[in-house]
């Protein structure tokens, strides 16, 4: 499972590994669960936008989420 920020196509996380220098982003997952959560600590207005969760199956499964920080 990967989380991508759509505005710049930046891969934020793959599995539980974080691929951004911004340590506010973290993927959360419990063993045995099908749930994956993107946690943004202290979200800021600049974090607003669309984030996509992608599952590496064939075919690929993805779901976009719009975040608004005011």
Automatic annotation (TrEMBL):
One of its GO terms (cellular component) is neuron projection membrane. One of its GO terms (biological process) is synapse organization. Residues 1-68 form the Ig-like domain. InterPro entries: Ig-like_dom, Ig-like_dom_sf, Ig-like_fold, Ig_V-set, Zig-8. This is Ig-like domain-containing protein.
């Amino acid at each position: 499972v990967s989380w991508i920020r759509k505005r710049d196509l930046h891969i934020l996380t793959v599995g539980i590994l974080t691929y951004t220098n911004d340590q506010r982003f973290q993927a959360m997952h419990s063993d045995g669960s099908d749930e994956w959560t993107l946690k943004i600590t202290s979200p800021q207005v600049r974090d607003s936008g669309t984030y996509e969760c992608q599952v590496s199956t064939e075919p690929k499964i993805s779901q976009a989420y719009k975040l608004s920080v005011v």
